[in-house]
Design brief:
Helix content is 42%, strand content 19%. Helix 24 (621-634) crosses helix 25 (655-669). The chain is built from 40 helices and 34 strands. By secondary structure, it is an alpha+beta fold. The strands form seven sheets. It has an eight-stranded antiparallel sheet with strand order 14-13-19-10-11-18-15-16. It has a seven-stranded mixed sheet with strand order 2-3-1-4-5-6-7, sandwiched between helices. A six-stranded mixed sheet has the order 25-26-27-30-29-28. The structure holds guanosine-5'-triphosphate (GTP) and magnesium ion. Guanosine-5'-triphosphate is lined by residues 26, 28-34, 55, 67-69, 94-96, 146-147, 149-150, 244-246. InterPro entries: EFG_II, EFG_III/V, EFG_V-like, EFL1, EFTu-like_2, P-loop_NTPase, Ribosomal_Su5_D2-typ_SF, Ribsml_uS5_D2-typ_fold_subgr. One of its GO terms (cellular component) is ribonucleoprotein complex.
Length: 1103
C-alpha cells in the first residue's frame, strides 16, 4: 500500500464514526513496538521487510540501544476495510514498570486498547496492571496473543499442546478481567443505591435536565443478572488475534472460517462458532461434533488452523524442503521474490510467505475497527467519571457543566460546539524537527517562486551597491552610525536565525479533542486542577485556577515526524504547540468556563528513587535549574524538588527511569555535565513494643527497660517517668505537656498509609468547617470515611485504646501521615477529627463548637508541634511511621490571668479548659482574652510548638526505636539452571523469597521476592549478568518493613559478646543504614574512625 497522503488523513479526521483511538498495552518485551511496526508498514511508512526489526516508534537512541520503549508515541494510520476507510490513531506505550506513568497518559486519550500477551510468558504483573488501567479508564480492550512462533521453535510444542497452552493463557487473561468486573459490579451497585436515594430526595426533575440519563441508570444490580459475556476475550467473539509479530503473521478465527467454509462447504457462521472449542470434524459423517477432548480427537482449531502453520514452519525453517515449500506456496496462492526464497536465513522466506498469507496488520486492524468503539460511542458513565473531580459528584456540578456532557456524547465538530481538549503529557521536540522548520521537497510552483525571488534580490543588491558607491562621500561626512549595506543586513538575520533555532527545543502537548474543532491560533481556557466551574461561572475575572492561552500550532503525530495542521475536528489525537507557558504536565482546555478539569491521571508507579544532582561546574547552576524545570514538565512521573539542605533532588520511579532522566538532563534539557549522588534511600522511624528476647534469643527480663530510659537526659524542665511519659515545660514556664509514645498495631499503620487520600479529604473538610465553609463530599467519600473509622475502631481494641478513635486529634506528618496524635488530656474536650461526618448525620455540637472556637489557636500549636515531630524523627531525621503520641497532660497558666487571679496560689496552675470556660461572657475577662489572642500568635505559641515537638521526640526515644526500610516486590522468571544464581543474588542483597512456582507448560520458574530498596541498586543488572540475560526482574515499590535489629544496640551479655564481638557492627544493618543517612545529612555520627591504631600501622608495614 502506498503512503497515505496528508489530505487523505485530514479528510478521515472529519468522520469520527470511522476514527479509532487506541493504544497498545502489554508487559515489557511482549512485542508492542514490533507489532506497531507491522501496522506502520501497512501504510507504507516503513518497508515491510524492515517491519519488526526497525522498531520505528522507538525513536530515542537509548530506546533502540536498550531495546525497551520509554515513552508513549502516537501515529495516525489509514485502513481500508471493504468500502469503509478508517483512521487509526495508534499509541505505542512502554511496558517497563518504571514508565507506567506513560501508559496512563496514553490510556487517557484512547477509546480502546490492544492488549498483547506473550504466548510463552503468559499473563505477567504488568499485563495485570495495564488491564486494570484500561478498566479504570473505561476503555475497551482486544487481545493479541503474540510470539506463537516461540511455541513452535523454542518450546517445540506440538500443535495439540500449543492449543492447550493457548487455552490456558486465555483463561488467565479472562480471570484478571473477571476479578475486575466483579469488583466493579459491587461498586456500581453501591453507586446505584446512592443515586436512588438522591433521586428520591430530589424528586423527578432530573431526567429532563440530564439527557442520556437512562443509560446511567441502566446498570445491573448484581452479579447474577449482569451480562459479562461481552467482556471476556474469546476467539469466537472476534476479539482475539493469534500472531507472531516478528514473522509478520496473525489471524483471527474469522479468517480461517472463511477460508475453510469455501473449501469444505460448511457455513462460515458454523465454523466461526466451532473453530475454537471442544469440537472435531467427523470425516465420515462430514459433520462437526462436540467432545473432541473426551473422544481423543483433534480439535478443529488444531486440525484446520494450527497444523497448517506448524507444517509451514516445519517445511520452511526446520527442514528447508524446497519442493514442499513450492507446493504450499501454490496452494496458498503466494508468490515471493527470488531474493527472498534464496536468502540464507529461512526466516526471511518465512515472513515473506506469512505476510502475504496471513498479514498481521490486516487481522489486527480489522479487529480494531470492528470491535473497538469510535469516539462517538463514549459512554455517559465514562464522561461523568472524567468530569467528577475529587470528592465531588457529577450531579452536584452546576447545570451548565452537566450540559457539557451532551457535547461529549455528540462529539460534534460544529462551530457552535464547545471545544474540549485534554492534554495528557508534554513532550519535547527539537525545533528542527518541527514541520515549520523542516526542509521538504519543493513543488514546481514553489521552485519557480523562489527563482523569481532570488532574481529580484540579486537586482536589488546590485542597485544597492551602485547606490552606496555613489553615496560614499555623503556617508563619510554625514551620520556616524555604522551604515550597514543592505547586503550585510540580509546576511545578518540569516546567520543569527539558525543558531537560535538550534538552541531552541519546544514542547508539544500530547492531546485529544473531545468536542468541537480546534483551530490554529485559537484561544482557550486552561483549567487548573483545582479549578471550580461554579466559581468560574460566578466570578468576574480573574478567576482562580483559570488561565487563557493560544494554541499556536497544531500537529498530526506521525511517530518520529510531525505534520502541521490548520484544524483538528473532534475525536482525534493531536499535538499542540505553544502551551508550555500555561501547561505543566497535563491540563484540560476548553472554550467553555463551565468545564471542570478532568480527573487526574492515575499513576500506578510511586516515585521512590531520589538522587541529588549538581553541575560539574558550579557556575552552570542556572542551566541545571532550568534543565530540571524542563524535565519536570516533560516527564509525567519525575518529580523535581529542592530540599531543605539546598540540594536539587530528582525523584524517579526506578533505576531505568532515573537513568533516562539523567541522560535527558545531560543531552537535552540542561546540556551540561552533571553529577548525581548515590540514590537517596528513604527510611521511616518507628517505635516497637519492648522485645522479650535479646539478640541471641535469650530472655531479656527487665534490663532492656533500664537501658532505654537512660537515653533521655532529664533536666529541670524535662521529666521522664519510668512508664515512658515525658513531661516538658516551656522555657517561660507557662505551659506543660506530658506525652507518651505508643507503637500502633501494624494493621492500623497499613490502613492509615493506604487511606492517605481519604484522610486528606477529611482534613480538608475539617479545615473548611473551621473556616465556616462546607465541603460537598460525595456519599461515596462519606461512606468510605465511615468505613475507615469503623475499621480503626475494630483494630484499636483493648484497654489502652479505649475510645481512641474518637479521641484522635490529628494525623501526621503533613496532616495525613500514618501517625496519630491522641487527646488523652483529662477534661479537655475538643471536636474529634470525625466531626464533619457527624454534621452529615445531623448531630448537634452546640457547646463543643463554642469551646472549640475559643481554644482553637493553641490547639493548633499542639498539632503543629506534632507535625514537626513526625516529619523528622530523632534517629536520622526521617519521617515517623506507625507511632501514636498520646498527650496525657496539658496545663497552661497565663501571666495576664495570673495578675488578675492573684488570689490563686502560684502552684495551682490553671488548666486550659478552666480558663476557656471562664473567658466568654465575663466582661472583666475581656482584657485577659485579648491578651491571650495576642499571645497565641506571638512567641508563646512558638514555645508551645517547640515544647510539644521536643516532648514527642523524647517520648519517642523512651521507647525501643527501630528503622523501617522501603521494600520492593519483584517477580523473577528464570529457568531451572539459573535458579541457584538468582537465589544467590537475592540472598546477598537481603531479599526474601515469598513464593516459588513453576509456570505451567514451560520450564520457567516464577519467584516472588521482597527486597529492601536500599539493596536494590544494580540488582536487575546483576541478575541479568549472573543469569546471562535469562532472568530480568522488575521492581515495584510495595511496603515499609521494620528492620528487626536495634540501631543503638550494643552487646551487653556474655553470650552476645561471644556471638557478635565487641564492636558488633558487622551484624547491625540498621546501624549502618542509620549512619549512612546521618552522614548524608551532615548529622553527628557516633563512630570510631581509627580503631586499634597500632595494629593498622603494623599491618601496613608488613605489606
Ligand atoms: N520470537 C518472537 N519474538 C518477538 C515477537 N515479537 C517481538 N519479539 C521480540 O521481542 C523483543 C521485544 O519486542 P518489542 O516490540 O520491543 O517489545 P515491547 O513490548 O515494545 O517492549 P517494551 O516497549 O520495552 O515494553 C524483541 O527482541 C522482538 O524481536 C514474536 O512474535 N516472536
Ligand atoms: Mg516497545
Amino acid at each position: 500500500m502506498g503512503h497515505t497522503s496528508l489530505d487523505k488523513i485530514k479528510a478521515l479526521q472529519k468522520n469520527p464514526a470511522n476514527v479509532r483511538n487506541l493504544c497498545i498495552l502489554a508487559h515489557v518485551d511482549h512485542g508492542k513496538t514490533t507489532l506497531a511496526d507491522s501496522l506502520v508498514a501497512s501504510n507504507g511508512i516503513i518497508s515491510s521487510r524492515l517491519a519488526g526489526k526497525l522498531r520505528y516508534l522507538d525513536s530515542r537512541e537509548d530506546e533502540q540501544i536498550r531495546g525497551i520503549t520509554m515513552k508513549s508515541s502516537a501515529i495516525s494510520l489509514h485502513y481500508a476495510s471493504g468500502e469503509k476507510d478508517y483512521l487509526i490513531n495508534l499509541i505505542d506505550s512502554p511496558g517497563h514498570v518504571d514508565f507506567s506513568s506513560e501508559v496512563s497518559t496514553a490510556v487517557r486519550l484512547c477509546d480502546g486498547a490492544i492488549v498483547i500477551v506473550d504466548a510463552v510468558e503468559g499473563v505477567c504483573p504488568q499485563t495485570q496492571a495495564v488491564l486494570r488501567q484500561a478498566w479504570l479508564e473505561n476503555i475497551r480492550p482486544v487481545l493479541v496473543i503474540n510470539k506463537i512462533d516461540r511455541l513452535i521453535m523454542e518450546l517445540k510444542l506440538t500443535s495439540q499442546e500449543a492449543y492447550t497452552h493457548l487455552q490456558k493463557i486465555l483463561e488467565q487473561v479472562n480471570a484478571v478481567t473477571g476479578s475486575l468486573f466483579t469488583s466493579k459490579v459491587l461498586e456500581d451497585r453501591a453507586v446505584k443505591e446512592e443515586r436512588a436515594e438522591e433521586d428520591k430526595e430530589e424528586g423527578d426533575i432530573k431526567p429532563a435536565e440530564c439527557p442520556g440519563s437512562e443509560q446511567v441508570y441502566d446498570w445491573s444490580a448484581g452479579l447474577e443478572d449482569s451480562d459479562d459475556s461481552q467482556l471476556y476475550f474469546s476467539p469466537d467473539q472476534g476479539n482475539v488475534v493469534f500472531a507472531s509479530a516478528i514473522d509478520g503473521w496473525g489471524f483471527s478465527i474469522q479468517q480461517f472460517a472463511q477460508i475453510h467454509s469455501q473449501r469444505m462447504g460448511i457455513r462460515a457462521e458454523v465454523l466461526l462458532k466451532t473453530l475454537w472449542g471442544d469440537f472435531y470434524l467427523n470425516a465420515k459423517a462430514k459433520k462437526i461434533m462436540k467432545g473432541a477432548h473426551a473422544k481423543g480427537k483433534k480439535p478443529l482449531f488444531v486440525q484446520l488452523v494450527l497444523d497448517n502453520i506448524w507444517s509451514l514452519y516445519d517445511a520452511v525453517v526446520t527442514r528447508r524442503d524446497k519442493e514442499k515449500i513450492e507446493k504450499m506456496m501454490m496452494s496458498l496462492g503466494v508468490k515471493v521474490m527470488t531474493r527472498d526464497s534464496r536468502h540464507s536465513d529461512p526466516k526471511v522466506l518465512l515472513s515473506a510467505i506469512c505476510s502475504q498469507w496471513l498479514p498481521v496488520s490486516q487481522a489486527v486492524l480489522f479487529m480494531v475497527c470492528d470491535k473497538l468503539p469510535s469516539p462517538l460511542d463514549m459512554t455517559s458513565e465514562r464522561i461523568e467519571r472524567l468530569m467528577s473531580v475529587g470528592a465531588r459528584r457529577f450531579h452536584s456540578l452546576p447545570l451548565q457543566t452537566q450540559e457539557l456532557k451532551t457535547a461529549f456524547m455528540q462529539c460534534s465538530s460544529d462551530d457552535t460546539a464547545p471545544v474540549i481538549v485534554f492534554v495528557s503529557k508534554m513532550f519535547m521536540v527539537d525545533a528542527k524537527a518541527l514541520p515549520q522548520n523542516k526542509q521538504r521537497p519543493l513543488t514546481q510552483e514553489e521552485m519557480a517562486q523562489r527563482r523569481e525571488l532570488a532574481r529580484q534580490r540579486h537586482t536589488e543588491r546590485l542597485a544597492a551597491i551602485q547606490q552606496t558607491e555613489s553615496g560614499e562621500g555623503n556617508a563619510q561626512s554625514g551620520s556616524t552610525t555604522p551604515a550597514t549595506t543592505p547586503g550585510q543586513m540580509q546576511g545578518l538575520p540569516l546567520k543569527a536565525k539558525p543558531e537560535e533555532e538550534e538552541e531552541k527545543e519546544t514542547f508539544v502537548a500530547f492531546a485529544r479533542v473531545y468536542s468541537g474543532v480546534v483551530r490554529r491560533g485559537q484561544k482557550v481556557f486552561v483549567m487548573g486542577p483545582k479549578y471550580d466551574p461554579a466559581q468560574g461561572l460566578a466570578c468576574l475575572p480573574p478567576v482562580p485556577h483559570l488561565a487563557c492561552c493560544t494554541m499556536d500550532s497544531l500537529y498530526l503525530l506521525m511517530g518520529r515526524e510531525l505534520e502541521e495542521l490548520e484544524e483538528v475536528p473532534s475525536g482525534n489525537v493531536l499535538g499542540i504547540g505553544g502551551l508550555e507557558e500555561c501547561v505543566l504536565k497535563s491540563a484540560t482546555l476548553s472554550t467553555s468556563p463551565a468545564l471542570p478539569p478532568f480527573i487526574p491521571l492515575n499513576f500506578e508507579a510511586t516515585p521512590i528513587v531520589r538522587v541529588a544532582i549538581e553541575p560539574k561546574h558550579p557556575s552552570e547552576m542556572p542551566k541545571l535549574v532550568r534543565g530540571m524545570r524542563l524535565l519536570n514538565q516533560a516527564d509525567p512521573c519525575a518529580e523535581v524538588l529542592i530540599q531543605e539542605t539546598g540540594e536539587h533532588v530528582l525523584v524517579t520511579a526506578g533505576e531505568v527511569h532515573l537513568q533516562r532522566c539523567l541522560d535527558d538532563l545531560r543531552e537535552r534539557f540542561a546540556k551540561i555535565e552533571i553529577s548525581a549522588s548515590k540514590p537517596i534511600i528513604p527510611f521511616r522511624e518507628t517505635v516497637i513494643r519492648p522485645p522479650k528476647v535479646d539478640m541471641v534469643n535469650e530472655d531479656l527480663g527487665k534490663q532492656q527497660k533500664v537501658a532505654v530510659i537512660h537515653q533521655v537526659k532529664e533536666s529541670d524542665t524535662l521529666h521522664l517517668d519510668p512508664s515512658g511519659l515525658v513531661t516538658l515545660t516551656t522555657p517561660n514556664r507557662q505551659a506543660t505537656v506530658g506525652v507518651r509514645a505508643i507503637p500502633l498495631p501494624e494493621e492500623v499503620t497499613l490502613l492509615l498509609e493506604g487511606s492517605a487520600d481519604l484522610i486528606r479529604t477529611l482534613e480538608q473538610a475539617g479545615q473548611a468547617q473551621r473556616e465556616g465553609r462546607t465541603l460537598d463530599m460525595s456519599t461515596w467519600t462519606l461512606d468510605a470515611l465511615m468505613v475507615l473509622k469503623s475499621r480503626l475502631e475494630v483494630l484499636l481494641q483493648g484497654r489502652k485504646w479505649r475510645n481512641a478513635v474518637d479521641r484522635i486529634w490529628a494525623f501526621g506528618p503533613r496532616r495525613y501521615g500514618p501517625n496519630i496524635l491522641l487527646n488523652s488530656v483529662e477534661g479537655y474536650q475538643r471536636p474529634s477529627v470525625w466531626h464533619c461526618l457527624e454534621r452529615e448525620k445531623g448531630e448537634k455540637e452546640g457547646g463543643a463548637k463554642a469551646e472549640a472556637s475559643a481554644i482553637r489557636d493553641f490547639d493548633n500549636s499542639v498539632v503543629s508541634g506534632f507535625q514537626l515531630a513526625t516529619l523528622s524523627g530523632p534517629m536520622c531525621e526521617e519521617p515517623l511511621m506507625g507511632v501514636c503520641f498520646s498527650v496525657e497532660r496539658w496545663d497552661m497558666n497565663f501571666p495576664t490571668q495570673r495578675t488578675h487571679l492573684d488570689s490563686v496560689t502560684e502552684k495551682d496552675s490553671n488548666s486550659l479548659d478552666a480558663s476557656v470556660s471562664e473567658s466568654p461572657g465575663e466582661g472583666a475577662m475581656a482584657g485577659a482574652s485579648h491578651g491571650r489572642l495576642v499571645d497565641c500568635y506571638g512567641p508563646f505559641s512558638g514555645q508551645l510548638i517547640a515544647a510539644v515537638k521536643e516532648a514527642c521526640r523524647h517520648a519517642f526515644q523512651a521507647k525501643p526505636q527501630r528503622l523501617m526500610a522501603a521494600m520492593y516486590t519483584c517477580e523473577i522468571m528464570a529457568t531451572a539452571e539459573v535458579l541457584g544464581r538468582v537465589y544467590g543474588v537475592l540472598g546477598k542483597r537481603e531479599g526474601r523469597v515469598l513464593q516459588e512456582e513453576m509456570k505451567e507448560g514451560t520450564e520457567m520458574f516464577i519467584i516472588k521476592a521482597v527486597l529492601p530498596v536500599a539493596e536494590s541498586f544494580g540488582f536487575a543488572d546483576e541478575i541479568r549478568k549472573r543469569t546471562s540475560g535469562l532472568a530480568s526482574p522488575q521492581l515495584v515499590f510495595s511496603h515499609w518493613e521494620v528492620i528487626s535489629s536495634d540501631p543503638s544496640w550494643v552487646p551487653t551479655t556474655e553470650e552476645e559478646y561471644l556471638h557478635f564481638g565487641e564492636k558488633a557492627d558487622s551484624a547491625n544493618q540498621a546501624l549502618k543504614y542509620m549512619n549512612g543517612v546521618r552522614r548524608r545529612k551532615g548529622l553527628y555520627v557516633e563512630e570510631k574512625i581509627v580503631e586499634h591504631g597500632e595494629k593498622q600501622r603494623t599491618l601496613s608495614k608488613n605489606k
